[in-house]
Design a protein that fits this description.
Belongs to the sterol desaturase family. The chain crosses the membrane at residues 43-62, 122-143. Its main location: membrane. Residues 129-259 form the Fatty acid hydroxylase domain. The structure is a single chain. The protein has 271 residues and is mainly alpha-helical. It has twelve helices and no strands. The protein has helices spanning 2-23, 26-29, 34-64, 78-95, 97-107, 122-149, 151-156, 180-196, 201-217, 232-241, 252-257, 263-270. 35% of the residues are buried.
């Protein structure tokens, strides 16, 4: 078992060398404890991903495709986006604690994680990923809903994110603009799933960081009309009504639990 757990340590050490070795002199990070190297790598990677995805997406929809996807009067101001960046940057060090904790638990054999797809085979791997995503979807839906329904949680945590409640205040940079504890709570289902079923380690880490790109996408106010994806059209309604579309990747949980509100039907009603 110890030999198998070393595979996880070798993988995280490889990620540390790639990320930290790219941005920092080795003498700065090599003496640090392994767990702290992991946190620092997650922090640098998270910040890099946040800014690259945010700037590229904003440049595309607000400059290259100006007035194509978003009307001029609905484009958020630079001040609004800078405020969102400020909130996200204050929270980022805390966000990175969760993947660092999950890596620590995996490396110590506390979870059901496996290192190589060949350990279970491709069919089992795909089934596990599908079940993992269902658990994450279910968990995030209810975590998000309770952050609204439990008044102290909303007042002291989730309200930080919901100051962005109009189309011209939402942007891709709002995707990670949460109270730190709020952002961590909504990502907890990713970690809980590790104790419930076998999960491929690399896939788990990749899906955690894909969250940063996904949250940028669902805050751009553009309704892509790709069923059953819980895209920005649905999520914009969430920011304006507060009582609908709590789901994450898909509309299924909102459909099952009666909180779905369709943006196309909303437009028809307004007409």
């Amino acid at each position: 078992m110890d030999d198998y757990l070393k595979l996880f340590v070798e993988e995280t050490s490889f990620y540390n060398r790639v990320v930290l070795g790219t941005f920092l002199p080795e003498s700065w990070w090599a003496p640090l404890p392994h767990w702290f190297q992991g946190w620092l790598r997650n922090y640098i990677g998270g910040v890099f991903l946040y800014f690259i995805s945010g700037f590229l997406w904003c440049f595309y929809i607000y400059r290259l495709k100006r007035n194509v996807y978003i009307p001029k009067d609905a484009i958020p101001s630079n001040r609004a986006m800078l405020l969102q960046i400020g909130v996200a940057m204050k929270a980022m060090p805390w966000y990175c604690a969760l993947p660092s904790l999950s890596e620590y638990m995996i490396e110590n054999g506390w979870t059901k994680c496996f290192s190589r797809i060949s350990d279970v085979g491709w069919l089992s791997y795909l089934i596990y990923v599908a079940v993992y995503l269902v658990i994450v979807e279910f968990g995030i839906y209810w975590m998000h809903r309770e952050l609204h329904d439990i008044k102290p949680l909303y007042k002291y945590l989730h309200a930080t994110h919901h100051i962005y409640n109009k189309q011209n205040t939402l942007s891709p940079f709002a995707g990670l603009a949460f109270h730190p504890l709020d952002g961590i709570l909504q990502a907890v289902p990713h970690v809980v799933a590790l104790f419930l079923l076998p999960v491929h380690f690399t896939t788990h880490i990749a899906l955690l960081f894909i969250e940063a790109i996904w949250t940028a996408n669902i805050h751009d106010c553009i309704h892509a009309k790709v069923w059953p994806v819980m895209g920005a059209g649905y999520h914009t309604i969430h920011h304006t009504t507060y009582r609908h579309n709590y789901g994450h990747y898909t509309i299924w949980m909102d459909w099952m639990f009666g909180t779905l509100r369709d943006p196309v039907e909303d437009e028809v009603k307004k007409m």
